Amino acid sequence: MALRQTPLTLLARALHNTPVAASDAVRRWRSDPARLRLLLEARLPQPLRRVSRPRVDSAGPGAAPEDASSIRRRVEELAAREQTVAAGAQLLRLTPDDPYLALLQARVLRAAGSLTEARDRAHDAARAKGRPARAARHLRDTLSNELELLTPGPLPTTGAPSYTSVVGTPGRILHVVTNSLPLTRAGYTIRTQELVAAQRALGLDAQVVTRLGYPVTVGHLTAGAFDRVGTVPYHRLLPLTPLPAHPVAALRAHATALEGFVRSTRPALLHAATNHLNGRVAHEVARRTGLAFAYEVRGFLEDSWLARHGDQPGAPATDNYLRTREVETWVMHQADLVTTLGDAMRVEIIDRGVNPDRVVVVPNGVDSRFLDSDDDGSVVRARLGIRPDEFTVGLISTFFDHEGIPTLIEAVSLLARDGLPMRLLLVGDGPQRESLERQIASSGVASTALLPGWVPFDEIPSWYAALDVFCVPRIRSRVTELVSPLKPIEAMAMRRPLLASDVGGLREVIEPSGGGLLVAPDDPEAWANALREAHSDEGARRRWGDSGHAWVARHRTWTAVAEIDRAAYERLGAT
Q: Which domains does the chain have, with CATH numbers?
């Protein structure tokens, strides 16, 4: 049981966690102050955040002259947001003798994925004197460690680690993840919760451990060493000592802490989920303890990065992209079992040389609260002021670039101009929120669009039910061609008809289920036509909804998904 959260308990936790919080803040500040500012800003309630992102257009030709400090600040913020093309353009406005020029060039190169070149530029900047040189030395050291971290191979160790075998407890599975509910909510954390809960319902003693320092490192100073969400136990690795300043040393500390936890709990298998940092730590501990190691590929980290840098020339040739791909692939090769979300992802993993016999598809699923829901969405619609006769389309998502939400906004705007207004409901939040709000304001749909932010987890079915059509307007990119998201499965379970971009990760869900219509990605006119068709044909919407629901009920319950994992664990002798 978790400790009762009395004021004294919370104070004790805060004191315990202060070294971790302080060391993490110092490390982030030295590495990239602008990124830390953005991180802190993102944790504020939406009304308290800055109204807009850096205004690059205000600094274009003909604009009033600016002092160098304002330009430097803009470069730092653009680099921190990974808007590297705009950041590079701003760099050209600084004079060649600006004392911060080399440091800022290194920051932009880092954001652009050119880590080796960024390290070398930071090294040049560190030869000078004064404040820029001190910051450059910190950046150079950080980049050197990041490059070492992206070198495939066993985790670098210091001293002589123990290689004493652990006798695992049959059926005890330890999931090694980045973050979790109840403190972080995303598709990643929901999958962990639902998959582990289903495994436990099947009789496995499945447990979860999060990365070293989490959730203190994301602002929860009074976090304890244990949480339970429903039936799922979550363990936290929260040391009394500060976290190491450099990434490789921090990963070694993570492995040491995880090893101690593993030796005390004696799982039969370590099941690490994306990304390679979790995988390398779990692999190292498996080596030291003789336990089986599974790696769950929930996405391809390098392709997610590439999707955010689509306008950047040469992004696929950067060492960040290539080396991340290489180290992720190395972890896959070390695993006794590789699980992943869909057929396209499995093919990609096999194409990287992983033995097909060790690669198993364990897709996303849903639970009974979606499949058995009879919620008609009327309570949510009334709360939002949506009339029963108003046709409402939208999505529930984290607002990332690859989700393609601007395409949906433009499609709704086109229909409004053609005399077919509809309500647009965008539930969620994320890096694109401010730009989406600006697009809505300028496209003529501000009076019909709603962005309520994140909603309580228990209310999610009601928000699906409030939509007449659930939309997944993802852009065409490597990540969307490969990765199948969770939200369309939940929407189909709620009998919501789907309109989804015709990309691989969605095609492998829509085609077998008959749950909706595939639409050309990145094409607002095609999306407007699809929305018009869905609006005019209530019978088609009903057929799509019923077909999708039946398919999910047969193939995509979390119980069925967890059975796949259990069978794979059994083949490894872990049950």
A: 32-149 (1.25.40), 169-361 (3.40.50.2000), 368-556 (3.40.50.2000)
